[in-house]
Amino acid sequence: MRFCPCFGSEEAKGVADRDPVLLVSGMGGSIVNSKPKKFGFTTRVWVRLLLADVEFRNKIWSLYNPQTGYTETLDKKSEIVVPDDDHGLYAIDILDPSWFTKCIHLTEVYHFHDMIDMLVGCGYNKGTTLFGYGYDFRQSNRIGKVMEGLKSKLETAHKASGGRKVNLISHSMGGIMISCFMSLYRDVFTKYVNKWICLACPFQGAPGCINDSLLTGLEFVDGFQSYFFVKRWTMHQLLVECPSIYEMLANPYYEWKKQPEILVWRKHTKDGDNNINLESYGPTQSISLFEEALRDNEVNYKGKTISLPFNFDILDWAVETRQLIANAKLPDGVCFYNIYGTSLDTPFDVCYGSENSPIEDLSEICHTMPLYSYVDGDGTVPSESAKGDGLEATERVGVAASHRGILRDETVFQHIQKWLGVEPMVGKHSKTSKVADAQPMVL
């Protein structure tokens, strides 16, 4: 009846003939809420600008549980949840959907927003042919809940579209997660996936950014907005207990053009004499540096001092994840496309201290601002790592775009439209993505 004039075609009703698309976010690319286990109001803890640091420390600071493999919040009265509103798209659209963020149009948190608009403008319909997958990005990329969540989304998209295979579009760490899924659930992947378009994925790690994240923390936004946001040190205390971060350390077995290093200007005193030299740590040697630098790392949570050293249990888990990624093979019949960022200085080697101001005790590194040496990339992931997918790609394309900017780049959109076999529906007033203002948070 689809083509019967008596009933009208789907095109005539404004529903285009499309294979479903599932958008998969990366590290920090999903709204995260804190929900009381018994009763009370749900609070958005990531992403938010107003009172961001306070809510982050109170609600999302975590400890890794080696018995379960999960990172668990210190706040035992609440749980971390990712909203699934708008068919999963809400959580990955505008990460802080408050009136304040919209007023200043902070593009750093306009995550998949432009891409969702683009796809809707090409005839995709939310809940029928367009879906999103946000997840708790603190956790391992191969942990059960993350894997089951992706499986469920694929099944939902497949069923809602009338049994069509799904086209995946992943960003950043989302590609690592899909690689794990492809290894662990190969039959499911083969059954449901048609094409995988990967954007800015750190297949071999993001050496400069991840090394420094484990040692000194991370700022999600730059400039004056950072004063409203989660502080670098506050973020650091979360990342030390995040398996997902350890899983993006530089792959020590990859044949880098030049192995990434951590450099430290050290001061050693013996018999009253000072000796200053530059020490170098490669991907394997860096483990001993992390151990020593983080040995005294701790936080005070509600009056209780909690030790947060470098976590060897997480490292052991991450080593197995890395092997899983290395074993990932593209099933027959699935097309893989890789878009990676270029033309931006991207941290690679990271250096602490200087010849004039050397590090005496390695724990000082955690309170030292780094100096980077750079390679080509998207500002976060080196092009060399993003291209190193180890898969039989139908096409690989470098685009001059930043790590998050790649999600709203017009050239990227043109490639996606070509690979999906769609184009903007000119002349049709397609309803674009709308994100409702967030409800007032009860703090």
Automatic annotation (TrEMBL):
PANTHER family xrefs: LECITHIN-CHOLESTEROL ACYLTRANSFERASE-RELATED
GO biological process: lipid metabolic process
Pfam family name, one: LCAT
Family matches, as InterPro entries: AB_hydrolase_fold, LACT/PDAT_acylTrfase
SUPFAM superfamilies recorded: alpha/beta-Hydrolases
Protein name (Swiss-Prot/TrEMBL): Phospholipase A(1) LCAT3
GO MF assignments: O-acyltransferase activity
